[in-house]
Specification:
It contains four helices and two strands, in the order ββαααα. The protein is mainly alpha-helical. Strands 1-2 form a two-stranded antiparallel ribbon.
Amino acid sequence: MPSEDSSGKRTRRGSITKTCNSHLRRIVVESAWSYHRPPCIWYGLRKRQESISEEAKEIAWKAQHRLHKRYVRLAAAGKDKRKITIAVARELLGFIWAIGIRAETVARQRIAA
């Protein structure tokens, strides 16, 4: 769960808090380590994506590019690799949330129809 302290126009985003599922937090942080490499879709990933909606694939591809760019930008600024990874993991949670909200909306529309 990412922390945030906002008041008026000021927004201060903090680290990933330890109030959530520790296993999920570990998986997200481990996933964030992979964004130091340029984005690509290898054969195994392409095969797994055959059953996924185009919208989810588009969000995932956008996430790969954006998170890699963020990792490279922070590394170029001389930030500590562990802090870079946590920042990227926090942003990755935002993309996961977006896909989840989209999937929930689609499911509700199917039930209503």
